[in-house]
Structures are given as C-alpha cells and as structure tokens.
Design goal:
This protein is mainly α. The protein has a domain of 151 residues. The chain is built from 15 helices and six strands. Helix 7 packs parallel to helix 9, helix 12 crosses helix 13 and helix 14 packs antiparallel against helix 15. The longest helix has 45 residues.
Length: 463
C-alpha cells in the first residue's frame, strides 16, 4: 500500500486557491460597499442581493477546490500554479461583471460559461488519458465540426445592426459564438496534421536555392485548405479579431512544428495565399460596416468627419459613433491613474460594452495601472507555465506537445489583441480577454483548454 506524502496534497495549489477564495469574497464586498457609497445604490438605497455577494464567489471557489481535490485524489503533484492563476483571473472578472451588470450579468457568466466549462475541466482531470486520447483519435471529426459550425454561422448566422454574423442560433439554445470554437478546432487540426504529415513533408521536401525546402503539395495542401476555408468563414462573419488570431496561431504552430527552412517555405506559400485572398476581397467583398468603423475609430477616435455606412450619411461623426468607445476607454484609463478610483467609485458604465469588450478599461479605471500590469503579468505566468508543460512532455508525443503549445499561443494572443485594442494601439477587434470578459462560449472554450493542459500535465508523472 502506497504511503501518502504531503506533496500528494498539492500544498502550493491549496494555499493559493484559499487566498483566491478570500480575495473573491473581499472583492464582492468592496464592490458592494463602493456602490453603496458612490454608485447608483447611493441614490436608490438598495443593497445588492446577498445571493450574489456570497453564493457566486463561494460557488466559484468551491468548484476550483473540487478540481484541486480531483488532482489530490489522483495523487498528481505536477503543475500547481495554472489552476490558481485561472481561479484568480476568473474571480477578478466576475467581480467586475457583477459591479457593471449586477446579478443578471454575474449569473449569465456563471450559468452559460463557468459551470459547463468547469464540468468539462473536471471530466478532463478525472479521465485525463481517455479524453485526451479521444481528442487525438477524433481530431478530424472534431476539427470539421468546428469548421462546419463556423461556415453555418457565416451563411445562416443572425446579422446584427452592423452586418456582422457572429452568433448561430440552434433552436431554443442560447446563441453560440462559433468563432471561439474554430480557434480550438484549428489548434487540434494543426496538432494532428503536423504529427501525421510533418515527417513526410520534411523528408520529401525539395531543396530550393540551397536553403529553402519546398514541401510536396499533396502533404501541404490539406492544412492550407483548412486554414483557407476557416478564414473565409470568419471573413463572411465579419469577425476581424478571430481572423487575426487564427493567422497568428497558424504561423506560430507551423514554426513550432517544422524545421525552420521548411517553415519559411510554408510561410511564403501562406503569405501568397493571403495576398490572393486579399486581392479577391478588394474587388468583390463589400466590407461590413463594423470593420470599416473600427479602422476609422482607430485612425482618429476624436474625428469630427461625418460617418458614412455603405456610402450613406448616418448623421453622426466618427467621434459620436465608433470612436466613442475608444474615447471612453482612454478617459477611463487616464482617470484610473496608478492606483485606480476604487471598486464602485469609477464610472466605467459610460464605456459601451464595458463588461465584455472593454473590461480591461473598466479594470484600469477602478483598480489602476498597477493592477492592470499585475493582470498582464498573471497572463504571462499562465502562458509560461503552459509552454513549460509542452516542453516537458516526451518528444515522441508530438500531437500532445503541439496541442498544448497552440493553447498557450491562443490565450496569449487573445490578451495581446484585446489589451492593444482597448488602449487603441491596434484596431479594436471585439476579442474577449480570457476568464475576465463577459462571454459564455469564450469562457467555456478557455476552461476546456486549461483542462486539456492539466490533463496532459498528468502524463509527466507517468514517465
């Protein structure tokens, strides 16, 4: 009979999760106190429901502790940092969502994203070998399902007032943001594809100019075709942010999976295909108003030029239309300074979509630039720990290593793109910040990705 050791209890993870639970409770209480003193509650005299103040952080903390208990029961000691970091980021996000959207927003995040996401994460921790092997064996059906849903959204998705088709409605189910699924589908497909065809592509490549190696078309075409179709689906959906992230994932995973000389050739081929698509779009694509407006706002959010949509005057200036979001985000960032106005003492409600697209701006206003930098540092720690798992996995497990690498790239890219858009360093894309922003499908996908990483990390102790 095996003697239990103290390290089997994952003491670092247990301590950090306990601190996160306390911080979550404290965050809700501080937000409620701030709203009572300076926010809308100061005028109405109504206190927030006790249900939200206690149940939401206790439920979230309890589920993260349950995930920790699964790992303790399985006597796994590796990787005790990822779960607490995710728990802290989620706790911070749910406090901000409750402060901005109240009970409705908090419970929407919990019911649509957190609960199903934690159920999937728990299943991956309970049956790590079975479920990760299922993903590997069924990589093609899973990838094609994600691609098919994106195509259906591009064709049949419900269009909003800007012309973008971002959600697919299937019967009585809530709208599905399929752009989140296509990113994970691409990661799974590329991991499977490079694992299966990578050696043959490198072994049968033709040497060009003494340095570059041209892969055989029969091996390179399926991967390029998958990315090409996925990009067209996202273009049809007018999801500029997803296209950008998809391209970064594609290039980064090719770099991680292939010899640099072969990668260079594939990158040239991919760039050529991108130029062909760009030329086609220039002549035949009617650019959706949402993308055009975002570029106008990026160029000058304070512009007084009249806003035109499909050549028709709207009666608004750029500063009154798409530039308004950027202006309010910049004002919020300046108002917050280094230390912030305090939870409940700022005015992030003036920022359109503050709980989803601009939650980082709300965080900067009420918690300050120091906490903003700390959050970005947390994401950096999360990405490094994920890449560490990929590096420690055995070299023969190519699919698993590339899968974890792709997940790390996806999470890091989302943060970079969203933070850059919030601060107007790049055009706004509408991408959510993992674990922070209001968005059920995005949170569900990110928790599944974390579950995959933690499931594969358990293999490190089986070596």
């Amino acid at each position: 009979m095996r003697v239990s050791r103290r390290s089997d209890l994952r003491p670092i993870e247990a301590l950090l999760l306990g601190l996160v639970l306390l911080l979550g409770l404290l965050g809700f209480l501080l937000a409620a106190a701030g709203l009572r003193l300076a926010g809308p509650i100061a005028q109405t005299g109504e206190m927030p429901a006790v249900r939200s103040l206690l149940v939401v952080p206790l439920l979230a903390g309890g589920l993260f502790v349950a995930a920790h208990a699964l790992l303790v029961i399985r006597r796994r000691r590796v990787e005790q940092i990822i779960l607490p970091v995710v728990a802290l980021l989620f706790s911070l996000g749910i406090v901000l969502i409750w402060r901005l959207r109240g009970d409705e927003g908090a419970w929407q995040q919990v019911l649509r994203g957190f609960l199903p996401g934690m159920a999937a994460l728990g299943a991956l921790l309970a049956w790590p070998y079975q479920l990760t092997e299922f993903i590997r064996r069924q990589a093609i059906p899973i990838s094609l399902a994600g691609l098919g849903l994106a195509l259906l959204t591009g064709i049949l998705g419900s269009a909003d007032e800007t012309g973008a088709r971002l959600a697919l409605v299937l019967g009585p189910l809530p709208p599905i943001q399929t752009s989140e699924l296509i990113k994970l589908a691409l990661i799974i497909f590329l991991a499977w594809y490079i694992d299966r065809e990578g050696r043959r592509m490198e072994g049968r490549a033709i040497l060009l100019f003494g340095r570059l190696r041209l892969p055989a078309l029969r091996y390179a075409l399926p991967g390029l075709l998958f990315v090409f179709v996925a990009t067209l689906a996202l273009v049809r959906m007018a999801d500029f942010g997803a296209v950008l992230i998809l391209g970064i994932i594609f290039v980064a995973m090719l770099y991680a999976g292939f010899d640099p000389r072969l990668f260079g050739t594939i990158a040239v081929i991919g760039l050529g295909m991108a130029l062909v698509v760009a030329l086609v779009l220039v002549f035949v694509w009617d650019v959706p108003a949402v993308i055009e407006n975002r570029f106008l706002a990026f160029a000058n959010p304070w512009s007084t030029a009249e806003l035109m949509v499909n050549g028709v005057p709207t009666g608004l200036t750029i500063s009154e239309g798409p530039g308004y979001q950027i202006q309010q985000a910049v004002y919020a960032t300046i108002s917050g300074g280094l230390s912030g106005a305090g939870l409940g003492f700022g005015s992030p409600e003036y920022i359109p979509l503050a709980a989803s697209d601009f939650i980082f701006a709300a965080l900067l206003e009420e918690m300050g630039a120091m906490i903003g930098f700390a959050v970005l540092a947390l994401f950096g720690v999360l990405a490094l720990r994920i890449f560490r798992v990929a590096m420690l996995l055995p070299g023969v497990q190519v699919f698993e290593r590339l899968l974890v690498t792709g997940i790390g790239i996806h999470l890091f890219t989302q943060v970079f793109v969203m933070a850059g858009g919030t601060l107007n360093l790049i055009p706004l894309t509408g991408v959510t910040i993992p674990f922070l922003s209001l968005g059920g499908m995005a949170l569900l996908t990110n928790l599944v990705e974390v579950g995959i990483v933690l499931a594969l990390a358990q293999r490190l102790e089986a070596r």
